[in-house]
Amino acid sequence: MLAALRKRLPSRNTALFWGSVFSVVGFYKYNSNESKKRLAFYCKQAEAVANEPMGALDTPRKVQVYIAAPMGELGTRKARLHWEKYILPVFVAGALDYELTLVNDTETINDVEKVVRGG
């Protein structure tokens, strides 16, 4: 009985390979599902704020967003993709008006500070 079962089991290396593959795939699926749940949670919270009535004299909610290149990167592409995938849906659900400013690589910290302070 045990010998027949042993013949059907894969070898040690095959079991390690498939175990590794299924672990990586399982982690990826779990991570994507959790990301969707978190995004839906924050969108729901922002939507609750958006549904609150505003008074006649209240100014609309507006956010100034600055996107700069991550450390060690030459362009703002990754930062823009992160903005579009994770942050923009929350702003849309919260009915926030925003002004998007891309900070170039050539600009220094002092130049960005001047832009932020409006000077």
Brief sketch in words of this structure:
The protein is built from four helices and two strands. By secondary structure, it is mainly alpha-helical.
Describe the structure.
The protein is built from four helices and two strands. It has helices at residues 2-8, 12-50, 77-93, 109-117, and strands at residues 62-67, 97-102. Helices cover 61% and strands 10% of the residues. With 119 residues, it is mainly α. Strands 1-2 form a two-stranded parallel ribbon. Helix 2 (12-50) packs across helix 3 (77-93). Helix 3 (77-93) links the parallel strand 1 and strand 2 (97-102).
Write the layout of secondary structure elements.
Elements lengths: L1 H7 L3 H39 L11 E6 L9 H17 L3 E6 L6 H9 L2
Parallel strand pairs: 1-2
Helix pairs in contact: 2-3
User: What series of H and E elements makes up the topology?
Assistant: HHEHEH
- Our estimate of the beta-strand percent is 5-15%
Number of helices: 4
Q: Which of globular, elongated, flat, extended, rod-shaped describes the shape?
A: elongated
Integer average pLDDT: 85
Please give the order of strands in the largest beta sheet: 1-2
Helix content: 55-70%
